[in-house]
Amino acid sequence: MKIEIMEKDSKIYVAGHRGMVGSAIMRELQRQGYTNIITRTHKELDLCRQEAVEAFFAEEKPEFVFLAAAKVGGIIANERHLADFMYDNMILEMNVIHAAWKNGCKKLEFLGSSCIYPRMAPQPMTESCLLTGELEKTNEAYALAKISGLKYCEFLNRQYGTDYISVMPTNLYGPNDNYHPEHSHVLPALIRRFHEAKMSGAKSVTCWGTGSPLREFLYVDDLANLCVFLMNNYSGNETVNAGTGKELSIKELTELVAKVVGYEGQIEWDSTRPDGTPRKLLDVSKATALGWTYKTELEDGIRLAYDDFLNNPMRAER
Asked: Which of 40, 91, 124, 228 measures 20 to 30 Å from 69, CA to CA?
């Protein structure tokens, strides 16, 4: 199959352009000189409404689509809102992918999550381990929705010869992250918690779990660079993992965030709280073989993320 290449004036739709991933893709496209990017806010276009999505695609006819829109959250949000996470994500992605196909979109890139892989998958996790075991229960609903999206892309390719690809990022962080005390992921949650502890002079901070799970983190602008790279350099039914290939324990991450934020109190652990999946490391050899590698080391990225938190007080309130 001939790989479709985005021209600088190609009509490109970024779904979810205000989110962390979508806004990073916008920055990367603009940095590389793409000039014909279209967006819609949630108020302008509710992706969960099929009729509205189909009308948008019929009118705008985007040639390339980055599907970065999603309903996301950390362990608490995923556990409390199982039905919402499954319904919203499945509906919006199906609406966008289907409308893109109906309107002759040249290429679509679907953004998923490493939570699609089995809880006890062999480490590091290769793309081929998808659907080989049971999912992690704490984010099963979100994972099932994302698996449905990537499989729909695969099935369209097989049935209709489309060129729709999927990218599965590891844990992401960076500008435009969500720092909500209940709905955020681990790294932004730690940034907020240690910042507030520093400001209040708290002598200790209690973190969830044991600190033993191992995690991998990718700076969101590095992901965006890979997304644009793959749009121009990859076609295939199998997803592509996006990560660094490096991991550290949650305890080590916590100490690193405390160091960057400048919190000098005690860190305590509440082992009655869930740890989540024991280890999540992606095999990134496919992306590496295609000629891509990450650029931002974790401590540097955390400093950039903390600057974003400090300079965007409205985001800290979400």
From this structure: 124
